[in-house]
Each structure stands twice: as structure tokens, then as C-alpha cells.
Amino acid sequence: MYYIGYDIGSSSVKVALVEAATGKKIIVLHEPQNEMEIVSLHADWAEQDPEIWWQHICTATKRAIREANIEASKIQGVGISYQMHGLVIVDDACNPLRNAIIWCDSRAVAIGDKAFEEIGAEKCFGHLLNSPGNFTASKLKWVKENEPEIYSKVYKYMLPGDYIAYKLTGDVTTTKNGLSEGMLWDYKENKVADWLLDYYEIDESLTPVIVENFTNQGVLNEKGAKESGLPNGIPVVYRAGDQPNNALALNVLNPGEVAATGGTSGVFYAVSEMSAGNKSTRVNNFVHVNYEVAKPRIGKLLNINGAGIQYRWLRNNMGDETYESMNRKASKIDIGSDGVVVIPFGNGAERMFNNKNIGTHFLNLNLNIHSSSHLFRASLEGIAFSFVYGMECLKDDNATIGVIRAGNDNLFRSEIFSNTVATLIGHEIEIYNTTGAVGAARAVGLIDGDFEKFGSSITTNDHVMTFLPLQNKEPYVQAYQKWKQELELILTYKK
Q1: Given the DSSP bridges, would you call strands 75-82 and 2-8 parallel, antiparallel or unpaired?
Q2: Three-class DSSP category at 268
Q3: What are the φ/ψ torsions at residue 347 (nearest 5 degrees)?
Q4: Alpha-carbon span 61 to 388, nearest angstrom
Q5: What share of the chain has pLDDT > 90, as a percent?
Q6: How far apart are CA 435 and CA 443, in angstroms?
Q7: How far is CA 4 from CA 93, 288, 345, 379, 493, in A?
Q8: Segment 267-294 mean pLDDT
Q9: What pLDDT score does 279 carry?
Q10: How high is the pLDDT of residue 278?
Q11: Residue-averaged pLDDT of the chain
């Protein structure tokens, strides 16, 4: 018997099949083969058609079943991971009314800032654990203000994972952790933040029914089964935003444990039992997947929009380079890149800079001595330094750092990147051979609530290696201080 898991990213949809009894990976693949388009009609906008996600899920599911050579009838349950903070709005026939406004879209920054100012820090931090910010609730308010004809037809709003669950089951539902990442959950009252909806003049009836994780959240209907290739009647058991789910996949469930992600964006996600830390708007707090009112587990998320996308941009604009060739060339350049500095924040507003959009900067290029190899090294270092800067923000917000775990993919495959981060933050980084889709599939088995068994299986089966802080850290410290000095000059200029 098997479980299937999905991870709906902004670049692709990943699917994984695992053995139900052991969690062993059977197959992991993604669709499309190239990256999905992000529509950007204006600067700092980012949209995707949610139907594209569904089409790729259906294609990927049928491929996975075929290539794994299993019987679809032996798949027993579904888990869903998805890009956080997005907004999908549907009419009363549950058809999308417009493209989804996705996580890296910055159009609602001013709306969230105004709400924070007028409602007040005490109320927002005490009940939301965050500023309303540029999250799902503020994006819905943007639609209300700027697209009133569309807004007038809204039947329900959803997070991206809610929409995929609907396509599978026909049920329009959401979760506490989903609402919390949209700034729609009141922790203190343990209910929907109706007061924020009232402030935004949004009818609470637009909120879907709330279902619990690790339970039957709805079963596949005939239409969902036929289109996806999955069995009719199997349950959707779990859904979570990609960062909480990534933490689950890495066995990051307890205070002091941190999940790191180095994909298109970079993330530190630290689990805490504290509710509000130092009340920083640079760090966001969300319901973790194992949150209970009696035993609250909060994920403190430090996001870096400009991370892997910076390195990808270099690859796409440097001819026939691969990531492997870029890493190889970068390894031949000394620590500090002979003075070249890359500030990698060219992917929209950065929360850790209080929603400033400071852009990407290539600094100190000497046309006589520097080559593309210097740019590759400086880019990896610049992204690594942004992680170190982010870790400083997390510690300022009273996050406890014990162990850091990351997946064996994307930026963490680069020794330059991983060694730089480990050395500067002074913590080991454990690398695991797992993915968000595998985590979502395995989560289906957590209907038994045995998180300890779940975690020990990951530690036993998936650990690949550990990056230790290097003994001679001084060159790294000097390079980081130079980078940070350049960053602070830009931040001062951008005030």
C-alpha cells in the first residue's frame, strides 16, 4: 500500500509515492519539465493560474503511477504541501475568478502597513503574532479595492493547497495553519480573526469550513479521481504550507529545531513554544503542523525572497553553464571573491528589511581581474550571507537555535554555500535526502499521531551528511562584515 504527496511550488509541482508501512520513497518527480510561468503584469506583481497547478498534478500523478509500476488502487491517502500566503478566489461554481496572487507578489504591502498602524501593534502581535503585512488577508483586501466587479462574485477565498484539495474532493475547506499564514487566525481566541476581516470589510462567510490535519479532510470524488488518476474515495489527510511541511519532512517539530530551505527563496523556520518573541515585523509566526492549544508549537519564519533565484538568474544569463559547472568554477576563487560583493535581493519586498525592496547589486567589479567565476562565488556567498543576516534576526526575536536541518537539494548541494553558513552561524547543518512531496506523503501516516516514530524513521533513513563549522573562520567573518557594510549603506540609502 502507498501514500501520495504533492508539493505545489511556484516553479513546479512535485509528486512523491511512499510505502505506507515504512515511508520508503518509491518515486519522486516533477511537472512541468521546465519551470511554470509566473505572470508579472506590473513591477512586484506575481500571479499564476491555479488551473495550471491542477493540470500538472494530474499529469505528474499519472506519470508517477506509471513509472513506479504500481496499481493506483493501492494508494490509500493524499497529503498536500503548497506555496504559502497565496490567494485563490472562486465563484459559487468554484471556478477561479482571476489568477492566484502568489507568495512573492508585493502589491498589498501598503494595505498591510496601514492596517498595522491603525489597528495597533498590541492587537496584531497579541492575536495574529504578526503584522497583517503582505499576506493573504491583505491581498484579498487589494482585490476588494481594485477589482470590485471580481470581488462581488467571490464565494470563497482559499490558500493554494485548499484549492487543490477542492479539485480532488469537491469540498471547499481550509486549516488553522493555512489561515494563520494568511493572517486570518486569532491565536488568543483560537478562531478566525473576524476583527481583521471586519476592518478590511470582508464578509466572514467567505472563509471556508475549517478541517483538522492528520484526519480525513474529505474523500476523492468521481471527478477528482478520474482527472487525477487516483482511486475514488481515498481521503485527503493533510495539508500545510511549504515551509511548515518542509520542517515536518526534516523532523523539525520541537523547540530549538530549525529547518532551512535554499530554493527560489531562502528560509529559516525555527520551531518555538513562545508565542510572540520580541514582536518583530521581520520574523513571522505561524501555527506549526503539530500545534495544539494545550501544547502550542509556533513556526518562526525568516524569509529571504532573493536567494536561489539569484543563482538561477546567473545560470540563465551566462550561456551554457550548469549549476555544477558554476559551483566548480566558484570553488577556484578565494573566500571573499577578491572583493566582489553580491547583494541578492532582487525578488520583491523583503520582510527582514521591513518590506523594503532593495534589489540586486553587483559591487566592486574590476573589469581587469574579475571573471564570471568571481560572480558565481560572490553570488553563493551573498546568498549565504543573507542567511547569516537572517539568523541574526531570528535570534533577536528570541528564537532558540539547537539543530539546523536542510534538504539535500538546491543551494545546500553547494559546499561553498553550506560551509559559509555553518561556519558563520556556528551550528552544524544536517543534510537529509528528502523533499516536501515526500514529507507530505509520509504525513498521511500521521493519522496515528506518533510523531516520535515518524521522526526516528527520517533520522535513520534520510540523513546524508553534516556540515560542521570550519575551524578557520576569520576569512569568512571578514567577507561577511564587508558584505554587511555594503548592505547597510544600501538600506540607509533606501530609507
Answers
A1: parallel
A2: strand
A3: -130, 45
A4: 38
A5: 80
A6: 12
A7: 27, 21, 35, 36, 49
A8: 82
A9: 66
A10: 57
A11: 94
Res 347: pLDDT = 87
| Residue 173 to residue 158: CA distance in whole angstroms | 8
Q: Cell digits for 188? A: 488568543
Grid-cell match 512523491, residue found: 16
Q: Are 158 and 208 in contact (CB under 8 A)?
A: yes
Using a 10 angstrom Cβ sphere, with 0-12 exposed, 13-18 middle and 19 or more buried, the burial of residue 206 is middle
**Single-letter amino acid, residue 267:** V
Give the Cα separation of 338 and 334 in Å (integer).
Answer: 7
DSSP reduced 3-state for 443:
helix
Check residue 207 and report its DSSP letter. S
* Mean pLDDT across 235-261: 95
Q: How far apart are CA 103 and CA 106, in angstroms?
A: 8
Q: How far apart are CA 389 and CA 424, in angstroms?
A: 10
pLDDT at 147 over 70: yes
User: What is the C-alpha to C-alpha distance for residues 430 and 468, in angstroms, rounded to an integer?
Assistant: 9
- Angle (CA) 391-396-400 rounded to 5° is 70
DSSP bridge partners of 301: 269, 284
So what's the pLDDT on residue 51? 97
Are 102 and 46 in contact, with CB atoms under 8 Å apart?
yes
* DSSP codes, 174-205: E-HHHHHHTT-EETTTTEE-HHHHHHTT--GG
Helix (H) or strand (E) holding 321: none
493 DSSP 8-state letter: H
How many whole angstroms separate alpha carbon 178 and alpha carbon 360? Answer: 31
pLDDT at residue 457, rounded to an integer: 83
Give the helix ranges, DSSP H, for 295-367.
308-316, 323-330
Asked if 224 contacts 431 with a C-beta cutoff of 8 angstroms, the reply is no
The C-alpha cell that represents 81 in the structure block:
504541501
Is the whole-model pTM more than 0.85? yes
User: How many residues are there in the chain?
Assistant: 495
Q: What is the CA angle 242-246-249, rounded to 5?
A: 140
Decide if pLDDT at 277 tops 60.
Answer: no
